[in-house]
Every structure is written in C-alpha cells, then in structure tokens.
Amino acid sequence: IRCWSNIPFITMPLSRAHGKSFAHRSELKHAKRIVVKLGSAVVTRGDECGLALGRLASIVEQVSMLQNQGREMMIVTSGAVAFGKQRLRHEILLSQSVRQALHSGQSQLKDMAIPVLEARACAAAGQSGLMALYEAMFTQYSICAAQILVTNLDFHDEQKRRNLNGTLHELLRMNIVPIINTNDAVVPPPEPNSDLQGVNVISVKDNDSLAARLAVEMKTDLLIVLSDVEGLFDSPPGSDDAKLIDIFYPGDQQSVTFGTKSRVGMGGMEAKVKAALWALQGGTSVVIANGTHPKISGHVITDIVEGKKVGTFFSEVKPAGPTVEQQAEMARAGGRTLAALQPEQRAEIIYRLADLLTDQREDILLANKKDLQEAENKGRLALPLLKRLSLSTSKLNSLAIGLRQIAASSQDSVGRVIRRTRIAKDLDLEQVTVPIGVLLVIFESRPDCLPQVSALAIASGNGLLLKGGKEAAHSNQILHHLTQEALSIHGVRDAVQLVNTREEVEDLCRLDKLIDLIIPRGSSQLVRNIQKAAKGIPVMGHSEGICHVYVDTDASVEKVTRIIRDSKCEYPAACNALETLLIHRDLLRTPLFDQIIDMLRVEQVKIHAGPKFASYLTFSPSEVKSLRTEYGDLECCIEVVDSVQEAVEHIHKYGSSHTDVIITENEKTAEFFLQHVDSACVFWNASTRFSDGYRFGLGAEVGISTSRIHARGPVGIEGLLTTKWLLRGDNHVVSDFSEHGSMKYLHESLPLPQRNAS
C-alpha cells in the first residue's frame, strides 16, 4: 500500500492481453487502461451556462484514485462550449452595461438582450478555462493532466493518427492523465459516409464516437460513458414500462426503443449505443451510467471498476441461464400461482420435499462431501463454519421431520380471515392473510437452510430467491433441484429460484422493484453488510446475538450450571448462545459461584471480566474490551449486578434484544424480569438455546428477528405473511353516509370462520 497526496491506494498487477472484452462485470476490476467519457449533461449546469463544479471535482477525485492504483486513465470531456458561453455572456453583459450606463442610465440595464452565441466561438473562449480548471483539480492529488484537441481528420490521416497514438502512449508512460476533446472551434461538419460501419472505420461526429474511436485505437480495457440517465432502457426513460437493461448484448438493438437526445450535447442514447457496440467489437468493454445523480455520482466510476451493478454493461457473452432480474420476475409469477393453490396442495409439495430429502440421501451427502473436500483443500473456512457446512443422515432426518411439521401447520396460513366487520347493511369488510411477495434469503455455509426456507416460503405462498455461499455450491444445487422437483407436482417449479450468477450481494440488495423482503442467514457481519446495502427493501434479521443469563440470589444450585453450560457450550457459534453472564453481587465468593467458575473451566470457556466484576478480584481474568461483544466461541463475559433491576438495565444498555434469561426460584422476581426485559425472547429457568423455530414448534425458521415491527423472535410461516382488506358491497357510495345521506355506519364485529382443526 502506497500513499499519494492524501489518497491511500493499492498497487496491483493490472495487465491482460487486449483483443477480447471482459465477459462479466466482476472482471472489470482487472481493467488497466480506462477511458472515462463525460457527456455535456454531466459537465454542464442545468442552465447550460457554466460547469457543474461539484460534480467535476468528484469525478476528478475518482479518476485520481484509480490513477494512483496504477491504472492508466484518460478523460474525453465536453464542456468547452458551456464554459465559453458563460465567459462570453459575462463579457457581453459587462460591455453592454458600460455602454448603456453612459447613454441611457441604469434604468435601461434590465432590458438588455443577450445575442445568440455561435458554438465555435464559445468553444474557442472556453477551452483554455476548462483545461485550467482540470489542472487545478488534478493538482490537489499530485497528478499532472495534459490537453489534447482532435478532429475527425486526425484519425483519417495516417501520419496524424500515429502521432496522436504516440503522444497518448508517452503521456500514459509518464503517469499523466490525457484530457481529450474535439476541437469544436474548428471542427468541420461530420462526414455522412461511414456511420459506425465496421471495426476499422468510425466517424468522429461527437464525443461518444470520439471516445469509442480513442478506446479502440489505444487498446483500452474499459470505456465508461457517463450521461444524465441511469443507463440503457428498453424504452424511453420515463415511460411507464421502461426497464433498465443491466447487460446489453450485440443484436439486442431491435428490442430497444430510443427516445430523444439529452438536453445538451450532440448525440442521444442511440449514438451512445452505436459507439459502445463499435468499441465492444474492437475489444473494449463498455458501461453507460448516470454521472449526474447526486446520490451516486460521487462513486459511480469507482463502483463500475469494482464490478458493482451500475448502469448498463455491454457484453459479447450471453449467460447460459436467466438473469437475476428474470429470476425475480419468475419467482413473483410462480409465487402468485403458489398462493392461489389450495392449502392441501401446498402441504403436498412440502411433504414431497420431505420425502425427497430422505429418498435422495446418498446423492445429497455425496454433493455435500464435494463441498467439504473443496473447503478443506482451500483452507478458508474456520472449524465452526465447516460444521455448519456439513450434512449428515441425522441432519437430513431432522430436516424432513421439521418440513412435515411445516406442512401440517400450514393448512390455514394463507387466506385466513383474522377480522370481520359489518360496515353497514350489505357492506362487509374482511382482513385476510396474504403472502409478502418475493423473498430474498441470503445464507452462508448452511445448505440445510435451503429446504427449510423453501418449505416456509411454499407454505406461505411467497416467491423465493435464494443466494447461497460458494462454499456450499454442490449441496445447494442438488437441494434446489429437489425443491423444484417437489414444486413441479402442482406446476409451480419457478416459485423458488437459486441465484447462480456472479451477482454480488450488494447488487441484489438494490432490486427494490423486484424484491419485497430480504432475510439474511449468517454471521453478524453478513447481516450488518446487508442492512447497510439494502436500498428501499426491508431487512428481517438481527445483526448481533448478545444473549444474557442473569443468576439471581434465589437461583437453584442444580439448575444454574446445567442452564449456563447448555447456553454457552452446546453450540457456541449459534446466535442464541450465551455471551454475557450476569451474577448478583451477593453470590460472589459463595459455593454456587465457585461451581459456575469450575464448570466453565472444565468446558474450556475463556472468561472475560466486566469492569465491576474485575474490581472485586485481586487477580482477575482479562478485562473485557466491550460489554457489547458477540464471541461466537467458547468465551464469555462475566459481570456483577446489584439487583434484578440493574440486570434489566444492563441488558437494555448492552444487549441486542435477541434472547435473555433469568435463573431464579422467586416467581415475583422472574415475572418482573419477563415483563421488563424488552427482547424478542425472554426466558425463565431455560437455556437461551431454546430460541429456535424448530424448538418452538414452528417446524423451521427463516431467521430470528430483533426488529420492532412485523415479526420478532424465531420467524416461521406467520412472519412471512401480511394482510389485505376485502370489502364486499352492493352499489355503496360514500355520499350515502353523509349528514343528509340515507345510510349509517354500523361497524359491528362479526364472528370469524372456524379454523381448520388440524
């Protein structure tokens, strides 16, 4: 890692044989030579008179960061005409004001008219100022910039073309950023001959075609075209059905309807697409993206180079399967069909999946063995993660039992009437349960999660997108195949989709128009990352599982060590494992306290002392760095409290609202704890490990939620449902209920229909 100016950066090997464009976004991080084309709408202000200085400063910062990583950056910029127009307008106004002040007095100044300014004159006046601005900005990052003005003739004359090529290579060799623009002060009208026909000919008509020509001439790895739209849409942006195209392939032009060009500039989106396809054919990858949006313009260039899903990526390689957007739409359609099935049919699918888990046991374990061998060979997974990755006959049998529980309990989940009200005569209102829509479940190293979550989604009539970790690829593939086989018995195979593309989790979290709820299953770091990345999509889950056990003065000696041992040692990596042990001060230096410490030592649990506990000891264990620590291993913190009230206050201050326990024989103290601790799960004389959907009788869970709305604790079928209102009337209108109307509101509660006895 080196530092240049105030920007830290990493020098990386960035070399590849030019001649073939990148096939996937994830490969863009290997781009060595990059051209950034700044459209007129990006560089200029909204009034088209002057430059968008904040936006330009942000672009320069991103280009500087990439240059300092060892990449070779070039900029094709517009803006000379707009900058010149601003300068000339100022000069004309100043000149007119002086003349009119001499002849007519100040009262006539407001009537001055600005003449129409000729573009070439504006360009001549603006080019030097534009370049001076770029130089000043790049100087802040210790980077030198150089200006190159070109015309179409410079590419058609072989000698000029070689000179241009040599100049650019020499500038790049000296770590200088070339800033290229068409010489608009002298540029002739575009030649109508060769309009982007063939690899060897392209007419430089605007900065789009200039950038494409330059990218191919210089054997550039990546061309980034920044405009004032998010990318390429299948119809004009702003129209009702317009959808952003994530990846555009040669030959897809027929499926696109182009709109008008941008508010400024020479070319519209059609010109950009033609230039992009020409560059792609010449071996340069292309991304068209929005460089004006205030929320993304500050990192749009670096996001593209990092392979994030920004704008439209042009690729010559079509994926074998559907895109993730298509998978989400398939899940939506399949989920709606699934919700329309009879409850017995949905249950039948889940029973079939349970049978397949045991019938196809050998194939599942064989696939899982491949995952385990690959993980061990790579040596990337810690022992707790390897345990999560591992499947066994007993695990599959337990899974099958859990799925049958879900099937049995799902008979009246969707479409259940939970409220009936008679609004008025012959006007009845019902509130009924319905699926949420499309769920995205992201899970790590836990292939057993796939059939559990699939069964819950099927039972609740939701479409499902699954994104598993690469370490469980073989296991996930066969389990998903079996899930779709079970779904096929009622023609809803597409309702559950496994995402196998190279989509990053952060990109999936941006699909707010396709996904209704994200459920992460994995480490607290994974959950935090997803909560941070989710854009407009609710996330159900918990970022931490800081679970407490409070040992009261009236605790039973027999119960204390059993409950603490089970809570901490049965599965220390689980989110519902004990992390902080709170002990009443009066129990210090008692036989019970000694038994607790001896048991933890026998189980090889490393003890960290809280501040108050450490103050009571002459020689204490290592003092805890933070009381908000989730260890996920055979470690825990011990802290001392003076009362049950203080225990509750400690939990509220340092806990994560997951699961908290009191051990006591005093019922009054226990009830105080149960009523006052504000966590998703609060237990009395029971292990924290009971906080689990299977143990709660839910069959399975999609996760444990610590949020304050919708669902808390282990989330089963009920947590995957929302409601809708059904109103049945007979020619009712609101005006009939006005002061002088003929009808009156009744608002009578009606009895609910009998639930299915099963």
Automatic annotation (TrEMBL):
UniProt-recorded name of the protein: Delta-1-pyrroline-5-carboxylate synthase
InterPro entries, sorted: AceGlu_kinase-like_sf (IPR036393), Ald_DH/histidinol_DH (IPR016161), Ald_DH_C (IPR016163), Ald_DH_N (IPR016162), Aldehyde_DH_dom (IPR015590), Asp/Glu/Uridylate_kinase (IPR001048), G-glutamylP_reductase_CS (IPR020593), G5K_ProBA (IPR041744)
Role description: Bifunctional enzyme that converts glutamate to glutamate 5-semialdehyde, an intermediate in the biosynthesis of proline, ornithine and arginine.
Known catalytic reactions: L-glutamate 5-semialdehyde + phosphate + NADP(+) = L-glutamyl 5-phosphate + NADPH + H(+); L-glutamate + ATP = L-glutamyl 5-phosphate + ADP
Location within or outside the cell: Mitochondrion matrix
Domain Aspartate/glutamate/uridylate kinase: 32-290
Single GO biological process annotation from the record: L-proline biosynthetic process
Family, similarity comment: In the C-terminal section; belongs to the gamma-glutamyl phosphate reductase family. In the N-terminal section; belongs to the glutamate 5-kinase family.
Pathway(s) per entry: Amino-acid biosynthesis; L-proline biosynthesis; L-glutamate 5-semialdehyde from L-glutamate: step 1/2; Amino-acid biosynthesis; L-proline biosynthesis; L-glutamate 5-semialdehyde from L-glutamate: step 2/2
Subunit structure: Can form homodimers/multimers.
Keyword tags: Amino-acid biosynthesis, ATP-binding, Kinase, Mitochondrion, Multifunctional enzyme, NADP, Nucleotide-binding, Oxidoreductase, Proline biosynthesis, Transferase
Organism encoding this protein: Eulacestoma nigropectus
EC number: 1.2.1.41, 2.7.2.11
Sequence ranges assigned to domain Aldehyde dehydrogenase in this UniProt record: 323-588
GO cellular component term, pick one: mitochondrial matrix
Gene of this entry: Aldh18a1
GO molecular function annotation: ATP binding; glutamate 5-kinase activity; glutamate-5-semialdehyde dehydrogenase activity
